[in-house]
Amino acid sequence: MSFSLSTFTVEINGTPTIAFQARWHVEADDICRGWPNLHWDEISSKGPRSGVALPPIIKVRLARASEKAAYNVAGNDVEFYGEVKIVKLIDASGRQDETDASVSTENVSDDAIAEQQDAHIGDG
Fold first, then answer.
1. Distance (Å, rounded) from C-alpha 66 to C-alpha 84?
2. pLDDT digits (tens, 9 = 90+) for 88-106
3. Contact 73/99 with Cβ under 8 angstroms?
4. Residue 36: C-alpha distances to residues 29, 30, 53, 55, 112 (Å)
5. Could you give the maximum distance between any two Cα atoms of the chain, in Å?
6. For burial by CB atoms within 10 Å, which of 3, 16, 90, 123 has the most?
């Protein structure tokens, strides 16, 4: 029996940072623990007052549509963790990757635009 791959996103301090594919959530959890350890200097931050390094809050979840699209069109910001392709959704400074930003704005449905226009017309 063969299982398909699911796309996962790792959030660091609430910001979607990387996307990758795995068959099981357990595999995704292992990557969520291992990848940040290799990139600790990039993701750790200093507290505003104490100057003490604060550990980042790291979570793994299923990827949203825009994150899946960014994974599928992965530009130059691809690396491998073992045999798993990792796509960075933001750069080291915390800015959203241009590919992800363009994909997320292109995926806005016509229905959502119509709803916004209807809401605006109803306001005034």
1. 20
2. 998 644 555 444 444 443 4
3. yes
4. 11, 10, 15, 11, 36
5. 58
6. 16
Residue 1 lies in a domain: no
Give the residue numbers spanning the domain of 34: 6-123
**Is the residue at 103 inside a domain?**
yes
Q: Is the residue at 77 inside a domain?
A: yes
Are 90 and 77 contacting, i.e. CB atoms less than 8 angstroms apart?
no
Identify the DSSP state of 64. P
Q: How many domains does the chain have?
A: 1
Q: Is residue 28 part of a domain?
A: yes
Q: Model confidence over 2-59: pLDDT tens digits?
A: 789 999 999 999 999 999 999 999 999 999 999 998 988 877 765 565 566 678 899 9
| Residues 5/22, Cβ–Cβ less than 8 Å | yes
